[in-house]
């Protein structure tokens, strides 16, 4: 890729927003994306739930961010609605990549099967963005981005971006 991709990390956690817990996974996501050549513009924390997550995703898209990674909110709890906030923004889902992430996660933890994270593109044109839902754990972020980062050049080349 000749031009650096822009990125954003959206950490989804009521406990981090309230100050009950510190953000451990967001900085890992930023570090791994940066190492893959993505210019991460921000790491922002939002509360769980469809509205807050969808609003932050839409804002990143309006800002022209090309790689958006959410961290958290993918489980089975009542406020774990990150996939529901993401789905309406995706034109195509990359189910094969999501399966690769699941298989990688299952190597480390049986709980990886509880994550409902989506991976997809907002379109098929050169300006489309990639949205990836990673689990909120440090290991889940490492597994997700360990699969995703090597694929980024291929994904964006196929969209007509060199």
Q: How would you describe the overall organization of this protein?
A:
- With 162 residues, the protein is an alpha/beta fold.
- The protein has one domain: MoaB/Mog-like domain (Molybdenum Cofactor Biosythetic Enzyme, Chain A), CATH 3.40.980.
- The protein has seven helices and six strands.
- It has helices spanning 14-17, 25-35, 50-62, 82-86, 95-108, 138-148, 152-158, and strands at 5-12, 38-46, 67-71, 92-93, 119-121, 130-134.
- Strands 2-1-3-6-5-4 form a six-stranded mixed sheet, sandwiched between helices.
- Helix 5 crosses helix 6 (138-148).
- The longest helix is centred in the middle third of the chain and has 14 residues, at 95-108.
- Keywords: Molybdenum cofactor biosynthesis.
- Residues 8-155 form the MoaB/Mog domain.
- One of its GO terms (biological process) is Mo-molybdopterin cofactor biosynthetic process.
- This is Molybdopterin biosynthesis protein CB.
């Amino acid at each position: 890729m000749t031009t650096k991709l822009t990125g954003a990390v959206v950490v989804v956690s009521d406990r981090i927003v309230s100050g009950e817990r510190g953000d451990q996974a967001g900085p890992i996501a930023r570090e791994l994306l940066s190492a893959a050549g993505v210019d991460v513009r921000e790491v922002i924390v939002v509360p769980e739930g469809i509205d807050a997550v969808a609003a932050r995703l839409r804002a990143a898209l309006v800002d022209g961010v090309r790689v958006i990674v959410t961290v958290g909110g993918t489980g089975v709890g009542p406020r774990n609605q990150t996939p529901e906030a993401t789905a309406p923004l995706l034109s195509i889902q990359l189910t094969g990549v999501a399966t690769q992430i699941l298989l990688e996660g299952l190597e480390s933890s049986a709980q990886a099967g509880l994550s409902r994270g989506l991976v997809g593109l907002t379109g098929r044109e050169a300006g489309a963005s990639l949205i990836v839902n990673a689990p909120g754990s440090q290991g889940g972020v490492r597994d997700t981005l360990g699969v995703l980062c090597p694929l980024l050049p291929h994904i964006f080349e196929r969209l007509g971006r060199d």
